[in-house]
Amino acid sequence: MSANDSVAALRGAVEDAARALRDGQPTKPSPTLERPPKPELGDYSSNVAMLLAGSLGDNPRAVAERLRGQLEGDAGLAPDLERIEVAGPGFINFFLADSWYLRALSALLEAGERLGASAAASPEKILVEFVSANPTGPIHVGTGRNAAYGDSLVRLLEAAGNEVQREYYVNDAGSQIGRFADSIAARMRGEEPPEDGYAGNYVSEIAERLQAEGVDPGDREALEQRGIEEVLGEVRQTLERFGVRFDNWFSERSLYAQGEVEVALAELEKRGHTYRHEDALWLRTTDFGDDKDRVLIRSNGEATYLTPDIAYHWDKLQRGFDRLINVLGADHHGYVARVRAAIEALGADPERFEGLLMSLVHVVKAVHKFGNTILKE
Question: What pLDDT is attached to residue 369?
Answer without folding.
Answer: 67
